[in-house]
Amino acid sequence: MILTVTPNPALDVTWHVDRLRVGDTHRADAGAVRAGGKGLNVARVAHAEGAAVRAITTAGGRTGEEFAEELGRSGVPHALVRVGQDTRRSIAIVDEALGDTTVINERGLTPSDQEWADLLAAVVDALPSARVLVISGSLPPGAPDGFVPLLIAVAKDAGLPVIVDTSGPALLRAADAGASVLKPNRAELAEATGILDPLDGARALIERGAELVLLSLGAVGMLAVTASGLVHARLDQPLSGNPTGAGDAAVAACAVLYAEGERDPEVILRRATAWSAAAVLMPLAGDISPQWPAIAARLRVSHPDSDSVRKDLS
Ligand SMILES: O=P(O)(O)OC[C@@]1(O)O[C@H](CO)[C@@H](O)[C@@H]1O
What we know:
With about 325 residues, this protein is an alpha/beta fold. The protein has helices at about 40-50, 60-75, 115-125, 145-155, 170-175, 185-195, 200-210, 245-260, 265-280, 290-295, 305-314, and strands at about 1-5, 10-15, 30-35, 55-60, 80, 90-95, 100-105, 130-135, 160-165, 180, 210-215, 220-225, 230-235, 300.
């Protein structure tokens, strides 16, 4: 079973508009509302692809009620820790003309010390039936610095690999704690490490203790960086659509393969890049197109040296 934990879930609202103009008034059909947050999207995608999953997260207030109802309807196996604060919202506005998406993420409200302890206990309870732990998404303001390292430690003690997709200082802490896989995008990597060169940034995470860094690069595809080398995968032609949740689909692919015992970075990178691109074709985060095997067949995969990667990324 793939166990996901989302410390800062969101009620996702997605609007589709013909053309987004800053400062203008727009009319849209009723927005689609989903129980979101990165770990929820990972669980949805893996569940839809037939994997056994369990999504653990918090829910509170009126938004939390709506979140819990939608999650119940989705059929994704889950456990909710009830908290006193309202679940935050995340707004995605898809510009149909540009094929681009603007996202506003509320920062989220801080759970109490007891609620953090309840969330940790829910994860610890589920660990015995898990084959991989996924920690995904931002942390709410005021989150304890030690929360992500503690989750990694308990999972590693139980013999499980841990995949982490987070941002800010938590990304560095996850590397220091020896996460098996980290999946930053270019901006998150530069912000967390303070290193502008993406290759040097990814290698800094490996030196700190991560085994594999999957660096998502948008239209340029994805890079797998390990202590022993580099693999690059990209599509022959980038796809346009809604990229929200594309990174979560990559994490889902990685989690499914890790749960099956796969550890080859190239195999993982191929599936992650294909699922990520297949997510862009779907209107809502948390879904991937059933066309993903055809997309996988269009991948160009290489084992480049550092200089040619840098040229590609400049
Ligand atoms: O604030 P975070 O946790 O970084 O991102 C939250 C979020 O934008 O990410 C998902 C898409 O990846 C959405 O479902 C979700 O609401």
